[in-house]
Amino acid sequence: MTDAATSTPTSDPVVRVELDGVVAVVTIDRPRALNALSAEVLGELERIFANLSTDAPGTRGVLLVGAGGRAFVAGADIRAMSSLGPAEAAELARLGHRAAAAIEALPVPVIACVDGFALGGGLEIALACDVIYATDASQFGQPEVHLGLVPGFGGTVRLPRAVGLARAKELIYTGRRIGIDEAVDSGLVVRRFPDRDALLDGARKTVEQIAANSASAVGIAKRVLVDAAGRPTDAASALEIGGFEEAFRTEDMHEGVAAFLEKREPRFT
Ligand code: CAA
């Protein structure tokens, strides 16, 4: 198996984690390749998100960012993919899906902070996050068809959920890039900011707002939202009922309801 389909860490970390109170900032750090997703980056993303709750239990929200100021992520690493055979490509796609699944499985919200290009696999990783915030300078797209490729890290699954099936088809079939206006209008981007500092500040404020709420309630809500996405109404409703029942087993629920009735602020654990 070539290096492109395996995850072999090198000495310089390609993904960095910084903890700042309740906020964890995860930075994809390959700016010379516009943060393209090599197998190493994907392996690191999978590992970091799978372990974050244990490694940093005080974290209440994650900001996923790209280093260098030009791109969030410009896609899967095209150079590394050029030497893959079909079976190795499938292995790489599975790795990309595992990285996306690890982001979705984290019980705290993850905000994709896009400043620049979010293309191909980069947009797919952003779509695995709970919300996308972006600067005015950002551009989005699934340009795989320009390369004779198709989305491989979840774009055909999550993009339709974000923007609707017809718009996702149009974006994937044309491979065209969209700017911030269309990204916001289509619902892909939840909030826009004039520049990177404002973006990171806004995302931190969102995490602080989330951190004032019950961690168990937010975690259950995320799990139900992620698991219910795309399921038939009956199955999705059953998941919600299960989550509602689970909330009633938490101390936070009893504290939150008691605090409301006693007209005081809740003290969540
Ligand atoms: N993979 C590997 N390297 C990449 C890359 C990628 N996806 N995107 C950019 N780079 C590299 C370039 O090769 C270049 O490196 P060198 O300086 O060593 O030549 C460097 O980053 C800077 O890029 P450009 O010189 O091309 O910068 P630009 O400003 O002229 O263009 C861009 C920027 C429009 C984003 C252009 O780089 C581009 O089109 N990149 C590819 C985007 C793309 O097709 N993404 C989809 C990849 S396939 C995929 O993601 C499959 C999947 O779903 C899993």
Explain how this protein is built.
- The chain has 2 domains: 15-211, Alpha-Beta Complex (2-enoyl-CoA Hydratase, Chain A, domain 1), CATH 3.90.226; 215-261.
- It is globular.
- It has helices at residues 39-55, 78-81, 86-105, 121-128, 155-163, 165-174, 180-185, 196-211, 215-228, 233-247, 251-261; strands at 15-20, 23-28, 61-66, 71-73, 110-114, 117-119, 131-135, 139-141, 191-193.
- 38% of the residues are buried.
- Strand 2 (23-28), helix 1 and strand 3 form a beta-alpha-beta unit.
- Helix 3 packs parallel to helix 4.
- It is built from 11 helices and 9 strands.
- The protein is α/β, with parallel strands linked by helices and 269 residues long.
- Bound molecules: acetoacetyl-coenzyme A (CAA).
List the helices and strands and how they pair.
Elements: E1 15-20, E2 23-28, H1 39-55, E3 61-66, E4 71-73, H2 78-81, H3 86-105, E5 110-114, E6 117-119, H4 121-128, E7 131-135, E8 139-141, H5 155-163, H6 165-174, H7 180-185, E9 191-193, H8 196-211, H9 215-228, H10 233-247, H11 251-261
Parallel strand pairs: 2-3, 3-5, 4-6, 5-7, 6-8, 7-9
Antiparallel strand pairs: 1-2
Helix pairs in contact: 1-3, 3-4, 4-5, 5-6, 9-10
The structure holds acetoacetyl-coenzyme A.
